[in-house]
Amino acid sequence: SLTGLQNDHKALMKQVEEALHQLHAREKEKHAKDEAEALAEAMSQNQSLPQAFAKVNAVTPGSPASISGLQVDDEIVEFGSVNVNNFQNLQNIATVVQHSEGRPLSVTVLRSGKKVHVGLTPKRWAGKGLLGCNIIPLQR
């Protein structure tokens, strides 16, 4: 019967409406979350930047360091497990590098006043060492 169909149609429209409603609510939530995250990010950028303990003063083109996006004058804040609190000397970095051959290391640098994350995978390449960059300790 026709009325039966109309009722089905109404029920269907209601379902569609509810689904759309939920979708929008989710989008709104997601948007709010994105904004909150962007804000938190901006806030953390404005807070005192973390202390760097070393600086990249040379990167060989074509090397793992160069491919990962490390740049000369990047100040190193974290190099794998090494940070300003436990860094003694460059041997610390060398050790982390040797233990991480072929595995990506998480490196955080300061570049023109911003924190930049770099994924660096130490590996054998045409040049010497596993990175192809030169790092100097920062004298504080």
Question: Describe it for me?
Answer:
It is a single chain. The protein has 140 residues and is of the alpha+beta class. 43% of the residues lie in helices and 23% in strands. It contains three helices and six strands, in the order H-E-H-E-E-H-E-E-E. The chain has helices spanning 2-46, 64-68, 90-99, and strands spanning 54-59, 75-79, 82-83, 105-111, 114-120, 133-137. Strand 4 (105-111) and strand 5 form a beta hairpin. One of its GO terms (biological process) is proteasome regulatory particle assembly. Residues 2-46 form a coiled coil. One of its GO terms (cellular component) is nucleus.
Approximate strand percentage:
15-25%
Task: Kindly report the CATH topology of the domain at 54-137.
Answer: Pdz3 Domain
Query: Which outline best applies?
Result: elongated
Number of helices: 3
Low-confidence residue ranges: none
Question: What is the residue-averaged pLDDT?
Answer: 88
Shape-level CATH architecture of the domain at 54-137: Roll
Radius of gyration: 26 Å
Oligomerization: single chain
Instruction: Give the beta-strand count.
Output: 6
